[in-house]
Amino acid sequence: MRPGSFLLSLLLSLLCGSVQSFAYVMPVFASDSVQLTKAADLTEAIQFQSQERKLEGLASRPKIGLALGGGGARGAAHVGVLKVLEREGIKFDCVVGTSIGSVVGGFYCLGVKPEEMEEPVVSARVMRQFMTVPIAFQVMALPFFYISRFFGVKSYDGLYGGKAFKEHLMAGMSTRDVEIEELKIPFAAVTFNLLDGETYLIKKGHLARAMTASCAVPVLRKPIPIDDYLMSDGGLVCNLPVKQCREMGADIVIAVNIDEPFDKQEAEKFRPFGSVGRRAIAWKLASIDKPQGMMADILIHPDTSGISLISTKRADARRALLAGEKAAEEALPAIRALLKKVGGSTD
Most buried of 125, 251, 259, 308, CB within 10 angstroms? Predict the structure, then answer.
């Protein structure tokens, strides 16, 4: 059994479970660094679409938000999209990211140009720092980790701790102690609190820590304690944070969904080991993404078919980057038309 398939199977059991059906709910008194949120369901999305939204003739320029979805190694597609939008002079008033979307979005809000992000993602350096040791070795070492518990060492569950990844993120910043509230563009990272089963936006505090928390994939990464919360990957319940962009004040939202398109498949595709589990995960993510995507004004969906969430292959990263550029180019006519309609500017 391949370690990657083992991981996907474990992750599937979490994704397909009811993450909101917690028997115990701890009272949560949110500090001003986090904000409670909820992903949109189909009913809410349909109601949103049925509302008459008058964006024309606003007294001021409409606020444009960017929602960057989760997707692990497919995150290179975000960089491709941003290269095109930056070239067109499209400015954003707020950015919300989930998982790898929080990493790309956080650096973008810090002022890092997409071209500067290209080499780290295309070289797969980001994913190699995300998984500092090959999964096969990490899985084989699990018995040794459990032995340490007999000596009182009881860390949170997960194959990787996250310190190296956080250090890698901090190394790419102009200062190691960047606070979210200091960013050039308002930013929030989506996280899932394991203690109460709720979704939160991290809007203040240490940027690298917020990114690390939003990327703490269950089973793969240990959750991150922040204040009175134990934060895990926000993609569990809110993988495409469109509604959350609107909660940040955006009038118009451009969303980037980097999950594999859930297209009809032939039966032969499901003979290889692990193929059914991967298909189920793709279905679950598509189900989570759909209502949120319905609330976007522009939905950009690069074709990331066949790119694993945990791929460390340079070829996959390059393909995701080019897919992002292609999808953004195809979306430009609709973006230009929308901004012209509402009086927005790309200057």
Answer: 259
